[in-house]
């Protein structure tokens, strides 16, 4: 077992964690970043990225994360391949234990563990991801300009994504397995008032159907949840919008979480319920969930951490001088 100590310990290696690392390293905090179970975050499974500022042409998600990793290392971040299995936030330095048995100690901790989209769990869904099946309309809706699309779900996210897709598609269908929506009333009113959106009640996706050359989504096989009757809906884009799982299980009982298990932070900051612990990216943001906003909050976390350490150092020096 080896103990690794640092001024700034970062957990998570998506845009939020790597941005925090870049700013932290440039501030001289020599951060250690533990990459976790999915190095690079959700962008590692995203092919075409067209909305990240600074690139006129479409770029690939894995390439973007590779560049961020190289930049973080170049300015002085130590990237470690390990998965954290236990945390002790009861005192500083904070102490995290990896699956390897190694221990990581940090005067401050930046949590950037992200969130994962919930999927239906169909084999055909897995096969068609990136070929017409997506979990983010604001990320991929632009690629379906003028095409027929469907959104699967019945909560706020599903209704918001259906409304958003009307900016690109003249034919949007919302598919819900029940006969009432869980979304807020004001969102439902906007949905039902929109002439470009059709709602299919009591339907669930039985299969995502591929075809064409190159193969892409061409239809959804649907099953009626009341009668069991099968039907087919021709679409070129299918957006699964049934929620997200924030990766916060490690911190349950340690940090304040909201009703959806996202880490609570002070408004306008990345400060959590424990001084010296900061959260950024999708682990604390259930509204925007974009790479660029994750990177922005990663920058915020590093600046908040730098300020916290400066104040702590000042207090320690003042006490020693008394």
Characterization of this structure:
This protein is elongated. Helix content is 27%, strand content 28%. The chain has 2 domains: 3-116 and 244-321, FAD/NAD(P)-binding domain; 120-241, 3-Layer(bba) Sandwich (FAD/NAD(P)-binding domain). The model has no long low-confidence stretch (mean pLDDT 94). α1 packs parallel to α2, α1 runs parallel beside α7 (291-321) and α5 (156-165) runs parallel beside α6 (185-193). Strands 1, 2, 5, 6, 7, 8 and 19 form a 7-stranded mixed sheet that branches. The chain has a 5-stranded parallel sheet with strand order 10-17-11-12-13, with helices on one face. A 3-stranded antiparallel sheet has the order 14-15-16. The protein contains 7 helices and 19 strands. The protein has helices spanning 15-26, 61-74, 123-128, 137-140, 156-165, 185-193, 291-321, and strands spanning 3-11, 32-34, 48-49, 59-60, 78-80, 84-88, 94-98, 103-111, 115-117, 133-134, 148-152, 171-175, 197-200, 203-211, 216-224, 230-234, 237-240, 244-246, 277-279. The chain has 322 residues and is of the alpha/beta class. 41% of the residues are buried. The two termini are 39 Å apart. Its cofactor is FAD. Residues 7-298 form the FAD/NAD(P)-binding domain. Homodimer. It catalyses: [thioredoxin]-dithiol + NADP(+) = [thioredoxin]-disulfide + NADPH + H(+). Belongs to the class-II pyridine nucleotide-disulfide oxidoreductase family.
- Gyration radius over CA: 22 Å
- Largest beta-sheet characterization: 7 strands, mixed
- Remind me, CATH topology of the largest domain? FAD/NAD(P)-binding domain
What proportion of the residues form beta strands (DSSP E)? 25-35%
How many distinct folded domains?
Answer: 2
User: What is the number of E strands?
Assistant: 19
CATH superfamily of the largest domain: FAD/NAD(P)-binding domain
What's the helix-strand series? Answer: EHEEEHEEEEEHEHEHEHEEEEEEEH
Helix fraction bin = 25-40%
CATH C-level of the largest domain: Alpha Beta
Quaternary state reads single chain
Q: Averaging pLDDT over every residue, what do you get?
A: 94
Shape field: elongated
GO biological process, one term: removal of superoxide radicals
Cofactor: FAD
GO cellular component, one term: cytoplasm
Catalytic activity: [thioredoxin]-dithiol + NADP(+) = [thioredoxin]-disulfide + NADPH + H(+)
